[in-house]
Amino acid sequence: MADPVVPLAIAGVSHHTARVTTIEAFRFANEEEFLAAARDRFGGVLLLQTCNRVEVIVEGDAAALRAFLTGHGRKEFFVHDGPGALRHLFALASGIDSMIVGEDQIIGQLKKALSDAQEAGTASPFLETCINKAIHVGIEVRRRTLINRGSVSIGSAAVQLAEAEIGTLAGKHILVVGSGEMGLLVAQALAAKHLTAMYVANRTYKRAEILAGKIGGKAVKFNELYHYITLSDVVISCTSAPHPVIHKTELSHAMRERCWPVEGHPRPLILVDIAQPRDVEDGAGTIDGVRLYTIDDLRTVNEQTMTTRKAEADRAHGFVEAELALFLRHLNRKSADEYLASLYTWAETVRVRERERAISRMGSPDEKTTGIVDDLTRVLTKKLLTDATFSIRTSAEEGDLVAAEALVRAITRGDRIEQDPPKE
Which candidate in 51, 130, 238, 259 is catalytic? Predict the structure, then answer.
């Protein structure tokens, strides 16, 4: 079988090979500007940016995508193309490729990337088909397996990490900074930990109130952030701000207020930054008493929980491969439509011409005779093209578009079909 023709390429960085600082540097701060720049270079383009990956998905070829990203100052990124790109996309949607294997947030993130591209006018019908199929595969994997059992989000993994570092969260004071989707996941994971207090801070106080109301916490104003840092045992920050919201100088002052009178050292603070870009300013981890963790540190959580989900991940891989094979056949079958349209346009032209010649030779036939001749030519044309249509579709389905095109040219133009040389 020939290699299928799939005009899809994906390039970017992820947690597999890049640290959080590298992912942060690769990000595109202005997504609309990036999509506008890519609009004229590719048939379609999507930008997927999450806390542990930045990926550009295009209808086009890998070489053009590599050149485009290099021209935008990006380097040392992976590239997938053709069926490999589809395999990566399906695995991504299934949670197999995630840092926290089986996490569910990637489904929503892919939907948002598609929605943003549609709004920007860069989502081609082909890309929409591929993304929607990937989302379908991801949903089916979770329905058919237990891959999303256990700690299955960056938010819940952050809570698990904090609990491992502090021993237990029971009776503790926790501050969640950010009230978006990730903040909700963190807060939900904390809700069952028997905390003494949970604070929620957000630049928009109303949103902090809404989240706090959902989980029985207390909303705090953003200008009181460092006061509540002083009161907390753990701070988990996950805003969508484009710059740090927890600064080294102010945090250092807050830590001084946590000092134990006798020892002179501040009470330890577990600070988990799972935002991308990062919420905590560089150097904050050097402050006395601060134990800073980032997305990079969540890898250990995945390693611990992956053991219990390995069998499910293997099952998910099998399902992805099966769906990939079916989808490739579907795409290749559709690619034959252009060739078949050309064939049937040619056949219809010949049919109509010969029908008119036959009718004119009859003199002035009545309407019934004319109808019979027309029906006869239609049936003959359809019968004569049945086997050719089957061969063209089969060739395309197997990824051999060269053979499909050659068949059409042989019929419509009388071109010779080149035979493969015999194997020795």
Answer: 51
